[in-house]
């Protein structure tokens, strides 16, 4: 994608506004209004067009020629591949090539093989909770589980997990400087890691990326750094956010919680419904590549469009009674993992981690309940809906 200088200036200005605008706990009320309005709505705060309706979101996600994922540009107008977090910020054909490579690490078979390890990590974390009466699910389980799994897959030392948390927090933050610094830190970290693996390769993903070839060509250092940063962040931040969200949905819907107690086999359906009802990833921006008319709105080259997965999941034209939490909803074609060519690569892993974590947690502490003495709060983030803490009483 090559934008005219004018379009580039507008895109950079819009990106600053969009990344600086945090999601709020009650953002779903805003989505309800958006769903009632026809076409796209222009949001001054985010300097972006908002697409809420399911059909519009799908159309945008499928038309990658008009709606590009290449949203992070260097000052010279080229795509910043590290800050774009690898394939997430690329369009075809380059996206397709890199995705094929990354996808090999996340096939159904490869992910299924991780099950015993995920169970072992979960049990260790639950053992550590056992002697407490109240714990924060985020700190005690939801964060350490997926970050350990992805760190082991990539082959980075578990001792470094603490600093990842801090950097990942900054990376999703609404403060532009913090975000830029966090990208730089990840780039420096993984550059060092890649150098180490070049000297002594092992069985991990970093070594696999170093030796991989696409059309007879090796991946560049930037490609590898970008892929590692993306997998590390996407591989834990989202799942860490989903685990407390499922518990929160069940807390708010005691009839669903009771049904799940009698029918634990409904847990995967409860997780899908939580992904629909209260999506973790609310949108990922797209850049308009040429002047175009969309649902009576005149979009200009360089405009930013936000396809709101989280709002589309409440579109009554697609989901009957959309504001009801219904574990037995079928079909449930939610957009919690996106749609189209960027459909989440880690969905199978995320589902497995979340279901193991919650199955073992609820089996060990069947009477656990949210500690309502503490108010729920979101982390300051533009597109990820993530609770700072989710305190629970383990026993009643
Ligand atoms: C609850 C957990 C998760 C949620 C809600 C989630 C959500 C998403 C969404 C909505 C997208 C699409 C972005 C777009 O259209 O621009 C996406 C892409 C992606 N996700 Fe996930 N994700 C989760 C877990 C994971 C995990 C565990 C991994 C890896 C280990 C992962 C890796 C990726 C990658 C690599 C992409 C980019 C795919 C591409 O651009 O082709 N995700 N995810």
Mean pLDDT: 94
Q: Write down the CATH class.
A: Mainly Alpha
Number of domains: 1
What is the gyration radius calculated from CA atoms?
A: 21 Å
Q: From the coordinates shown, what is the CATH architecture?
A: Orthogonal Bundle
Instruction: Return the string of H and E elements.
Output: HHEEHEHHHEHHHHHEEHHHHEEEEHHEE
Q: What strand line-up does the widest sheet have?
A: 1-2-10-7-3
Structural class: alpha+beta
How is the CATH topology named?
Cytochrome p450
The helix count comes to 17
Q: Which of globular, elongated, flat, extended, rod-shaped describes the shape?
A: globular
Identify low-pLDDT runs: none
Named once each, the bound ligands are: protoporphyrin IX containing FE
State the CATH superfamily name.
Answer: Cytochrome P450
What is the share of helical residues?
40-55%
The profile of the biggest β sheet is: 5 strands, mixed
Q: How many β-strand stretches? A: 12
Strand content: 5-15%
What is the terminal-to-terminal distance?
Answer: 57 Å
Topology:
Blueprint: H1 5-20, H2 27-36, E1 41-43, E2 48-51, H3 54-62, E3 67-68, H4 94-103, H5 108-112, H6 115-129, E4 134-136, H7 137-142, H8 144-154, H9 161-171, H10 176-199, H11 205-211, E5 213-214, E6 217-218, H12 221-234, H13 237-252, H14 254-262, H15 267-277, E7 286-288, E8 292-294, E9 297-299, E10 304-307, H16 309-312, H17 347-364, E11 369-370, E12 391-393
Parallel strand pairs: 2-10
Antiparallel strand pairs: 1-2, 3-7, 4-12, 5-6, 7-10, 8-9, 11-12
Helix pairs in contact: 6-8, 6-17, 9-10, 10-12, 13-15, 13-17
């Amino acid at each position: 994608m090559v934008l005219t200088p004018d379009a580039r200036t507008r895109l950079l200005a819009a990106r600053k506004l969009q990344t600086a605008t945090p999601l709020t706990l009650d953002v779903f009320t805003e989505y309800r209004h958006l769903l009632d309005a026809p076409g796209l709505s222009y949001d001054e705060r985010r300097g972006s067009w908002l697409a809420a309706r399911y059909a519009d979101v799908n159309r945008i996600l499928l038309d990658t020629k008009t709606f590009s994922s290449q949203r992070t540009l260097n000052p010279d107008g080229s795509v910043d591949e590290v800050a774009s977090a690898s394939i997430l910020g690329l369009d075809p054909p380059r996206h397709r090539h890199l995705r094929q490579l990354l996808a090999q690490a996340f096939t159904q078979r490869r992910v299924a093989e991780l099950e015993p390890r995920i169970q072992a990590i979960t049990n260790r974390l639950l053992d550590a909770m056992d002697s407490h009466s109240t714990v924060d699910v985020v700190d005690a389980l939801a964060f350490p589980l997926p970050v350990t799994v992805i760190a082991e897959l990539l082959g980075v030392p578990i001792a470094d997990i603490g600093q990842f948390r801090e950097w990942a927090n900054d990376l999703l933050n609404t403060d532009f400087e913090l975000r830029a610094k966090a990208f730089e830190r990840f780039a420096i970290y993984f550059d060092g890691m890649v150098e180490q693996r070049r000297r002594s390769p092992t069985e991990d993903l970093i070594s696999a990326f170093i030796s991989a070839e696409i059309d007879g060509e090796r991946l560049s250092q930037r490609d590898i750094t970008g892929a590692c940063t993306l997998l590390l962040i996407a591989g834990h931040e989202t799942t860490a956010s989903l685990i407390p969200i499922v518990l929160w949905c069940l807390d708010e819907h005691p009839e669903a919680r009771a049904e799940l107690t009698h029918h634990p086999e409904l847990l995967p359906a409860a997780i899908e419904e939580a992904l629909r009802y209260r999506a973790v990833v609310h949108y990922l921006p797209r850049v308009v590549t040429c002047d175009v008319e969309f649902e009576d709105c005149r979009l200009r080259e360089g405009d930013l469009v936000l396809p709101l997965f989280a709002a589309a999941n409440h579109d009554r034209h697609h989901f009957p009674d959309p504001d009801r939490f219904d574990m037995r909803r079928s079909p449930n074609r939610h957009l919690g993992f996106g749609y189209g060519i960027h459909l989440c690569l880690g969905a199978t892993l995320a589902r497995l981690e979340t279901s193991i974590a919650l199955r073992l947690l609820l089996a060990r502490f069947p009477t656990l309940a949210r500690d309502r003495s503490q108010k729920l709060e979101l982390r300051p983030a533009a597109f990820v809906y993530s609770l700072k803490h989710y305190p629970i009483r383990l026993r009643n």
